[in-house]
Amino acid sequence: MFTGIIEASGTIADISRNAGDWRIRVNVGGLDMSDVQLGDSIATDGVCLTVVQFDPHSIAMDVSAETLSKTSLGEFSVGRQVNLEKALTPTTRLGGHLVSGHVDGIGIVECREPVGDSIHFRVRVPDELARYIAHKGSVCVDGVSLTVNAVDGAVFDLNIIPHTAQITTIESYQVGRKVNIEVDLIARYLERLLLGDEAARSQHGNIDLAFLATNGFLK
Fold first, then answer.
1. CA angle, corner 216, sides to 215 and 218, nearest 5?
2. Model pTM?
3. Disulfide check for 8: which of 30, 43, 132, 194 has CB 3.0–4.6 Å away?
4. Which parts of 153-199 are beta strand (E)?
5. Residue 214 is inside which H or E element, if any?
6. In angstroms, rounded to a whole number, what is the distance separating the alpha carbons of residues 107 and 72?
7. pLDDT at residue 215 is higher than 70
């Protein structure tokens, strides 16, 4: 588990490809490596990856073909900057929100404009994720815990303050950028809980308006 509070910005130093899988080596920048061990989980642009090699200045992690197909990692190249966060511990401050590092889909940056000292972004998510995005709720974008400022269908707004822009990769985002999206864990579990016994029936995999009306949630 993670918090979405980025600890360092790293740089892709090398990518080795083997039968559809990748091994990426990341120069970790200012990430504290004093407690890193083999097998540790480190969120890389919001994707939970396992450390398979490391030295004081870099980590190597394997990325499966499945992960490459479901996240933006397939677009990584040497020199790209990435957001890094080590897994939380029982004494970690939960400054963001609970993040699993399991990406739900890929969003697209549709707008970038300055607003005072901040940057306003609009991000479009796949339609099937729209129901999990709520005004003033939490969303994880490339591993960064952010607050949703507004929602319009499958598009949501973000306001990025200077501090967040400086310590993450968000400052480099331009229109058309693909970003990893992880929706709030509570929203996903709440949907499943609302299904009740119907969750055990494969034909009722999701909640829709018909289900809500049938079960008294809509009038």
1. 115
2. 0.87
3. 30
4. 155-160, 178-183
5. helix 209-214
6. 9
7. no
What's the pLDDT at 102? 94
Per the listing, tokens 């969750």 go with 199
pLDDT, tens digit (0-9, with 9 covering 90-100), for 124-178:
999 999 999 999 999 999 999 999 999 999 999 999 999 999 999 999 999 999 9
Give burial (CB, 10 Å; 0-12/13-18/19+) of 144: buried
Q: Which residue has the higher pLDDT, 106 or 20?
A: 106
195, containing H or E segment: helix 185-195
Contact 27, 10 (CB under 8 A): yes
Q: How many residues does the chain have?
A: 219
Give pLDDT tens digits for 54-84.
999 999 999 999 999 999 999 999 999 999 9
Give the sheet arrangement for strand 144-147, strand by strand: 144-147, 138-141, 178-183, 105-115, 118-124, 155-160, 150-152
Say which residues have a Cβ less than 8 Å from residue 10's Cβ, sequence separation at least 6: 26, 27, 28, 29, 31, 44, 81, 82, 83, 84
The topology (CATH level 3) of 8-86 is: Elongation Factor Tu (Ef-tu); domain 3 (2.40.30)
Q: What is the DSSP string of 32-95?
A: --TT--TT-EEEETTEEEEEEEEETTEEEEEE-HHHHHHSGGGG--TT-EEEEEEPP-TT----
| Identity of the amino acid at 57 | H
What is the rounded CA–CA span in Å between residue 118 and residue 13?
30
